[in-house]
């Protein structure tokens, strides 16, 4: 007779992550230096995985840091990774480093957001683009997705809104595939329901626009009578050991044409 070991939900959670990644039990076992039989026993609750095994499997399945803590709790262990507030003194060096990075990128726009796209820090290049948007969107916590896609935000000034909106929604969909977050799901549903304003590039005629002669899809946005083309790049921290840090993303906007370069430099 086999005795079931009580591990509150860690087996089904690991199986869900494995299936989400499209990895077989055998492949996962080879990656984690284990056996398919042991992986099967873990997933069905016949074997209780050690703390080290949970973390090893999570690493091979590319499980986010926050979700690794959830796996450990489900397995009866204490969370491994802290979730430190950015206001904590221990985060001082990190915050100062990010501020210096954003300042050095000026006059080009740059922003730091958390896992829910709330703005943690921004440089002058970014705040210049926010002129004229509704005050309620600038009430803390500022949210990058709301500011960009809300009809009273940047949306009416984005020439290729349909394409940029699709890009942002796809970005959120990829994130939702990696994490379990009711808050992120609600934000996705909220911004997806925003109406698309009328104007150039916003309606059906956007499909007839010529392809962009750029190396990546730019955000084409109006600013004080000028049309700017900006390509975004997102950076995250390697091997984060804190939940808060693991969810930070630094987004920088690179000018996609000489006219945008000249205009942004003229603002300094």
Written account of the structure:
With 268 residues, the chain is of the alpha+beta class. The chain folds into 2 domains: 10-74, 434 Repressor (Amino-terminal Domain) (Orthogonal Bundle); 89-266, Beta-Lactamase (2-Layer Sandwich), CATH 3.30.450. 43% of the residues lie in helices and 11% in strands. It has 12 helices and 5 strands. The chain has helices spanning 10-21, 25-31, 36-44, 51-60, 65-74, 92-105, 124-129, 144-149, 161-178, 182-192, 243-246, 258-266, and strands at 110-113, 119-122, 219-223, 226-235, 249-255. A 5-stranded antiparallel sheet has the order 2-1-5-4-3. A hairpin with a 2-residue loop joins strand 3 and strand 4 (226-235). The N and C termini lie far apart (76 Å).
Summarize the structure.
It is built from 12 helices and 5 strands.
Number of strands: 5
- What portion of residues belong to β-strands? 5-15%
Gross geometry? elongated
Tally of helical runs: 12
Give the proportion of residues in helices: 40-55%
Low-confidence stretches: 1-7, 203-209
Second-tier CATH architecture of the largest domain: 2-Layer Sandwich
Q: What order do the strands of the largest sheet run in, or round the barrel if closed? A: 2-1-5-4-3
Instruction: Provide the gyration radius in Å.
Output: 22 Å
Q: Please state the average pLDDT score.
A: 90
The major beta sheet can be summarized as: 5 strands, antiparallel
User: Any idea of the CATH topology of the largest domain?
Assistant: Beta-Lactamase
Number of domains: 2
Assign the CATH class of the largest domain.
Answer: Alpha Beta
Structural class: alpha+beta
Order of helical and strand elements: HHHHHHEEHHHHEEHEH
Distance between the termini: 76 Å
GO molecular function: DNA binding
Protein name: Helix-turn-helix transcriptional regulator
């Amino acid at each position: 007779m086999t005795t079931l070991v009580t591990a509150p939900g860690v087996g089904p959670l690991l199986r869900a992550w494995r299936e989400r990644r499209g990895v077989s039990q055998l492949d996962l076992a080879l990656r984690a230096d284990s056996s398919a039989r042991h992986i099967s026993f873990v997933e069905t609750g016949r074997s209780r995985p050690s703390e080290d095994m949970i973390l090893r499997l999570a690493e091979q399945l590319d499980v986010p840091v926050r979700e690794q803590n959830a796996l450990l709790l489900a397995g009866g262990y204490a969370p491994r990774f802290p979730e430190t507030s950015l206001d904590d003194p221990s985060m001082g060096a990190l915050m100062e480093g990010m501020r210096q990075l954003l300042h050095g990128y000026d006059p080009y726009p740059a922003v730091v957001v958390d896992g829910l796209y709330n703005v943690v820090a921004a440089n002058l290049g970014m705040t210049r683009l926010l002129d004229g948007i509704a005050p309620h969107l600038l009430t803390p916590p500022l949210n990058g997705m709301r500011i960009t896609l809300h009809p009273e935000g940047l949306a009416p000034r984005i020439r290729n809104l349909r394409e940029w909106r699709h890009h942002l929604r796809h970005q959120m969909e990829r994130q939702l595939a990696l994490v379990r977050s009711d808050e992120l799901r609600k934000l996705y549903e909220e911004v997806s329901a925003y109406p698309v304003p009328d104007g150039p590039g916003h309606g059906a005629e956007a499909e007839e626009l010529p392809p962009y002669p750029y190396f990546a899809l730019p955000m084409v946005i109006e600013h004080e009578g000028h049309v700017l083309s900006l390509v975004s790049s997102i950076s995250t921290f390697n091997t984060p050991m804190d939940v808060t840090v693991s969810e930070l993303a630094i987004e920088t906007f690179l000018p996609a044409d000489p006219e945008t370069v000249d205009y942004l430099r003229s603002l300094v």
